[in-house]
Every structure is written in C-alpha cells, then in structure tokens.
Automatic annotation (TrEMBL):
Its main location: membrane. The chain crosses the membrane at residues 12-35, 55-72, 84-103, 109-131, 143-166, 172-191. The keyword Kinase does not apply. This is Major facilitator superfamily (MFS) profile domain-containing protein. It is a multi-pass membrane protein. Keywords: Cell membrane, Membrane, Transmembrane, Transmembrane helix, Transport. One of its GO terms (molecular function) is transmembrane transporter activity. It comes from the Bacteria. SUPFAM superfamilies: MFS general substrate transporter. Gene3D superfamilies: MFS general substrate transporter like domains. Pfam families: MFS_1. It is found in: Cell membrane.
Length: 214
C-alpha cells in the first residue's frame, strides 16, 4: 500500500489518519453534548447553539486562511509551513479539553473560534507540504490513499464514539480526542529535516479536501 510513497507523504498520511480518527470520536456526539449539557434538554435552544457554533467556526476559518496562506507563500522555505502545521495541530488539540469545562453557550463559541484558528493554520500549511512532496506520477494514488485511510479511520471511530458515550459519558471522548490529536504530531516531527529550504514554483496539484469538525 505504501510502496513507492516517500517518507514525508507517509508522515502526512499517518497524521491525517490519526487526527481524523480522533475527531471521528467526537463528531457524532457533539450535538448531543450541546443538547444535554449546554441547552439542558431544550431542543430549540440546542439547535440554535449548534448553528451559531458552526457559524463561528466557518466564518473565522474562512477569514483567517487567506492572510495565513499569503504569508506562507511569501517565504521560500518550508520551515514556516512546518511550524504553522505543528502549532495549528496543538491549538486544535486544546479544543476537546476545553469542552470538558464548558457549560455556557459562549464557551462553545469561543472554543469554535479557537478550533477555527488552529485549522486555518493547518489547512494552508499542510496542503502546501502535501502538494510539494507528492511523488511525481503518483498524485492521484497518494491523494486517494490519504482520503481512504482517514475516511475509514473516522468512520470506525465515529461508530465507536457513538457507542462509548452511552456507557462512559462525554468526558472520556473529549480526553481521547485531544490526546490522539497531540499524538498525531509524533508522525510529523521526524520529517522536519525533509522540509525544503527552497520552495519549487508552478506546482498545481491539489490535495484531498477534509474536515476535522465536531
């Protein structure tokens, strides 16, 4: 499966698998958490909070990605992409731990803004690294491999998360999501020395779209 895939791409795919699997635990139970814990059983209020949480996430992420992407493109080396990638993942990992202490709507909104900030750092930087390090002639295969593995991982953990919450509650899922998001970093750090000192231009292949969402 990984034959002919270079070490940077392997690291990227493993990171993608782990972080999406981690958030797969949280995705199916996020609305239930809002309804039970924040809206306290009020379905209409719960739907409103989830809606505004989605608004805060997407608007913040959409606003920040463009200036971050422009900044990263002004630097010829990949080390800035690498550190934005790392810091964005760390910020994203903090969000599930924040849910442990949330009991008011503004807590959720603030965490969604934090989540969006982390993702706005991850998406431009990780996509840039993906594009530059995809093996020539293997673009479709490696994009498909990445999408397949993180899709399977997120699907499996989504089912697991849905089962776990009924027996173990929300707290353990939040802890596991944050912990495994941090663990995903261990796949990225070893390829720091493979980051390009100069960035090749006129590369137009694009990576698979993904959403790491609650």
């Amino acid at each position: 499966m990984f034959k002919g895939v270079n070490r940077v791409m392997r690291a990227y795919i493993y990171w993608d698998l782990v972080i999406n699997s981690a958030w797969g635990l949280l995705s199916p139970i996020f609305a239930i958490f809002i309804l039970q814990t924040i809206a306290v059983g009020n379905i209409a209020r719960g739907a409103e909070i989830v809606g505004f949480a989605t608004l805060f996430y997407w608007v913040t992420k959409s606003i920040l990605q463009i200036p971050i992407g422009n900044y990263l493109d002004k630097n010829h080396g990949e080390i800035d992409d690498f550190w934005f990638y790392i810091i964005g993942t760390i910020i994203t990992a903090l969000v599930p731990f924040g849910f442990l202490f949330s009991y008011l709507p503004w807590h959720i909104y603030a965490l969604q803004i934090l989540h969006a900030t982390g993702m706005s750092m991850i998406i431009p930087s990780s996509y840039a690294i993906f594009i530059r390090h995809t093996d020539k002639g293997r673009e479709a295969y490696e994009s498909g491999l990445d999408s397949t593995l993180f899709g399977i991982g997120a699907g499996i953990t989504g089912a697991v998360g849905g089962i776990m919450v009924g027996y173990l509650g929300f707290k353990l899922i939040f802890i596991l999501t944050g912990t495994f998001t941090l663990i995903s970093l261990f796949f990225i750090f070893p390829v720091r020395k493979d980051m390009l000192p100069r960035v090749p231009r006129k590369i137009h292949e694009f990576p698979v779209e993904k959403n790491i969402l609650p």
